């Protein structure tokens, strides 16, 4: 479900976002991306397996980074400010020791999304733009509909200037500070 605020209605969009967030059942996600409010149900089992696999591979490389799920990020842009709930956030340990619901994206090294039929276009478009605007260095998109793992890097403005795609089952090299090949064969 998507709701878009009329031009210049930042406070209305924020009020609607707050109301929907309060009313959403547990496990449902409410996001405000590019002025549009999106409500999405919980992911399926395969979605959870992929997120867990990426998290485990990062943890196994013991590089001082942590994997966070269910963490909200503030995403800069035209009012109203965006609020995203990525499937996966990788940042240095201790980066989010506060009580904020939506965090500053400054410490984030990588943000990841796993597509579903209902989220694929948003993950490829609006969320990619939001993460680039936030200056998040790496955006990992596991695109189940296209059977690809895509690593976006070098954010400039509202887009990433570099993109590396591999078919799911092929390794995907993650640059430092991650510095390992992601085994997409586990997906």
Describe what this molecule looks like in 3D.
This protein has 187 residues and is of the alpha+beta class. It is built from 4 helices and 14 strands. A hairpin with a 5-residue loop joins strand 13 (171-174) and strand 14. The longest helix is centred in the N-terminal third of the chain and has 16 residues, at 45-60. It is globular and about 45 Å long.
State the major sheet.
6 strands, mixed
The N- to C-terminal Cα distance equals 27 Å
What number of domains? 1
Mean of residue pLDDT?
90
- State the low-pLDDT regions, or none: 1-9
CATH class value: Alpha Beta
What global shape is seen? globular
CATH superfamily annotation: tt1808, chain A
| Number of discrete helical segments | 4
Strand order of the largest sheet: 4-7-9-10-11-12
What share of the residues does DSSP label as strand, in percent? 35-45%
Instruction: Indicate the CATH architecture.
Output: Alpha-Beta Complex
- Count the beta strands: 14
Structural class: alpha+beta
Radius of gyration: 16 Å
Helix content: 10-25%
CATH topology: tt1808, chain A
Taken in chain order, the helices and strands follow as: EHEEHEEEEEEHHEEEEE
Search tags:
single chain; 187 residues; alpha+beta; tt1808, chain A; 6-stranded mixed beta sheet; 3-stranded antiparallel beta sheet; 14 strands; 36% strand; Restrct_endonuc-II-like; Putative restriction endonuclease domain-containing protein; Uma2
């Amino acid at each position: 479900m998507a709701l878009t605020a009329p031009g210049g209605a930042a406070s209305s969009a924020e009020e609607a976002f707050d109301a929907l967030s309060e009313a959403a059942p547990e496990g449902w996600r409410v996001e405000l991306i590019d002025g549009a409010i999106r409500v999405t149900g919980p992911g399926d089992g395969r979605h959870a397996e992929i997120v867990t696999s990426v998290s485990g591979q990062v943890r196994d490389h013991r590089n001082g980074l942590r994997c966070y799920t269910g963490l909200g990020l503030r995403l800069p842009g035209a009012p109203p400010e965006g609020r995203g709930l990525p499937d996966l956030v990788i940042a240095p340990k201790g980066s989010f020791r506060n009580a904020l619901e939506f965090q500053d994206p400054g410490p984030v090294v990588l943000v990841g999304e796993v597509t579903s039929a209902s989220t694929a276009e948003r993950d490829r478009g609006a969320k990619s733009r939001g993460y680039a605007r936030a200056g998040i260095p790496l955006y990992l998109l596991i695109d189940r509909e296209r059977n690809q793992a895509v690593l976006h890097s070098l954010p400039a403005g509202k887009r990433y200037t570099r993109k590396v795609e591999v078919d799911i089952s092929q390794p995907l090299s993650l640059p430092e500070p991650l510095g390992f090949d992601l085994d997409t064969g586990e997906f």
